[in-house]
Fold these 4 entries.
Entry 1:
Amino acid sequence: MLSVRFSKDDEQLIRRHAAEIGISVSEFLREAAISKIEDEYDLKIYKEYLENEEYKITRPLDELISELGLENEI
């Protein structure tokens, strides 16, 4: 169980939005929190990917097609 405090304006905004989309405030806040965590995790993984030198290698398309044995498929 968690308890979170909001300003009156924020609380009204959250309650109004939850009602508009037909879910409870608890469900809305849970979904929002989980979504935020997933977004931050995805961003972290993407940044790690960009920093990995192994993924910065490029090669011509015809070389990749040959490597994958797809010459007769295209």
Note: Residues 5 and 11 are 9 Å apart (CA to CA).
Entry 2:
Amino acid sequence: ISLPPNHPSLATSYNNIGGVYANMGEYSKALEYYEKDLKITLKSLPSTHPDLATSYSCIGEVYNDMGEYSKALEYYEESLKIREKALPPTHPDLANCYSNLGSVFDRMGQYSKALEYYEKAFRIYQQALPSNHPHMISSYSNIALAHKNMGQYTEALSKFEMALKLGCAILHTNHPELGTLYNSMGSVYFSMSNFPKALELYKKAL
């Protein structure tokens, strides 16, 4: 099949290939294909098209995984700008953008900034999704981890307990996400020097 060099279908293919390389941890290859996708998308679609936001977001994710946080922020912020223009204020894709930005600030050790973005994401998810949606579990967890990293252990436990309550209600009992939650809660109790409780939760994670 021969398509014109700027055909949107080519951009989709490049994005798909980039995604495979990203999942394999081959970040330079992922960037090569994501940048080809972005180049075509910029030429072929309007400046507020959701696919353009996705292209920027994919590149941001690779830079985040590579530890190049200033680059990750740059691309995630471009994605956010487009989505803020193109989408209603309670669209879940906007929440995903805020969550992505939160994760970068979290990795940079800027926990209060991370918390700010995680809470923005949470407020949208609360309005846009059913209360038992799996995204709510990760949203509670993100907020909890930011509180933990700031030494705010009571707040962290409160959010982890909400995540765990929801997780136990909607996930099967041996779902890996539950193990992650038990481990995370255990680490909070460990930080509080409540070692028996930490041990109890770590054992539940097994």
Note: Residues 35 and 59 are 8 Å apart (CA to CA).
Entry 3:
Amino acid sequence: MVLDLPVTFSMRTVLAGYRFPFRWNPTHRARVGLLPRNGTAADIVWCAVEPCFVFHVANAYDDADGRVVVDVVAYERVFASAGGGLDTPGRLERWTADPATGRVDRRVIDSAPQEFPRIDERRFGRPHRYVYTGSVPADGNTQLVGATQIYKHDLATGERRVHEFGADRVPGEFVFVPAGPEAGEDEGWLVGLVIDTASDTTDFTILDAGAFEAPPVATIPLGHRIPPGFHGNWFPNQRAE
């Protein structure tokens, strides 16, 4: 799947002295490309989508009708102002790209501001039930850090569960770790870093994915503060050998 969305390189922005050269381009047609796994560029099928922008995809898979289903965090507009930046917060959506009609259907799963969607990575390329995301401040601050919650979305029931870390405790992107090779989709742990802005320290925190709202299973103080970040990963020991 190729996301071709209306953010493009702007020479005018570069010549104006801005360091970030990309801007929202309303004249650029938004589309999603479906490329067969063993295909070539000539085989790609383009599907039109309403203008928006996506940084991060949770997962994508083929459904029984030959469509591609993909869960994303989508923004209605980004980098439109002179200095760049996120003009609107992201929301969790499900896109269904249909090569037969050449269209993408967008459905909002959760309109709350959020980012960094993750799933049980054993489900990559297959239907999934749970998506984990980090909350984003809803006070007009569209920076991607500062909120104190992460979310667990149950796509079968439509339920959103919330883990609250407490005042001044800002979580990063949490990663799902299965309890074992045959564990259920939410049978395992969520691991990530939490910054305590009051004490300027960082903890490595482990949550029980099945008891998402419960206090952490473990909180491990680290030797120094680690700045906000994202895109951590976990893999079993045998993959590192």
Note: Residues 115-241 form one domain.
Entry 4:
Amino acid sequence: MIPSAGILAVALVSAALMGLAIQRGATCMVAALDEAISERRFGRAAALAEAAIWVGGLAAIAAAAGWLHMTPAAYAVTGWTVAGGVLLGVGAWVNRSCVFGAVARIGAGQWAWLATPVGFFLGCLIPVEAPMGHAGSSFGAGPDGVIIMVLFALLAIWRVIQAMSARHIGRHLWHPHRATLLIAVTFVTTLLSAGYWAYTDALAALARSMDAMLSLRVLMVAALFGGAVAGGAIAGKLRRERPRVPDVLRCLVGGALMGIGASLVPGSNDGLILLGLPALLPHAWVAVATMALAIALAIRLSAVTGEARTAKP
């Protein structure tokens, strides 16, 4: 399937801006949990949660306007859901960043993390029986959807008031937390232009050759990483760090574990958080909770054994 020039442009620009926002926000679930456990601060975790709420609210508005016709796939919650969440969490910890954090690190010139998407791709090649999905509820549907919409409206009003009262609007919007909101906006624009897309799912589709728009999604992956590198250069973080073999191997293994986990519970870290949570899909909530618990336990264990703390991207 060949997309039109307009769809191609919107999809590629959205992916590039998402990469820039991920790099600026240093968005990473491992870093968020490390910050919460080690420093008792919850800024990164709050940014991820707010991004998910913004996706839910914007997607619900798009669905109500007739612009968004897709419904996210839901999967039964089984032991494989928990196993997938554990693998996603352990893989992220081994990798020292989740799939979001890997993009941020690549954007900062930490080239060893280029092995993460390679490892993820290899993990997806391992034959695992994928769960069968069914159509979930539309965004904003039902009483639970109303709760998401109310939260979104309150957050949006609060953010507008903050922006209007800011002395320097540019600096205000360029703050890492606010930059994370750009991830939500671009995620929804990719939904509208190219359908559901997360770069991990593009890698999984490439491994299985199961996507009619595979060529577009591969281009979007390239645009995502290009945007992250551009973001690193703009922020002065691009340091062109020479990769060390142990780091490359660790990222390769961590990526592979996350790839296997994503085969057991489709969506991986990025799709589960940005799509599954605001769509109120039970399997996504179970998988993300399990993933977070696995990362938290790994961080605690590494602290007890004296292993170095996870560096933030």
Note: The two ends are 37 Å apart (CA to CA).
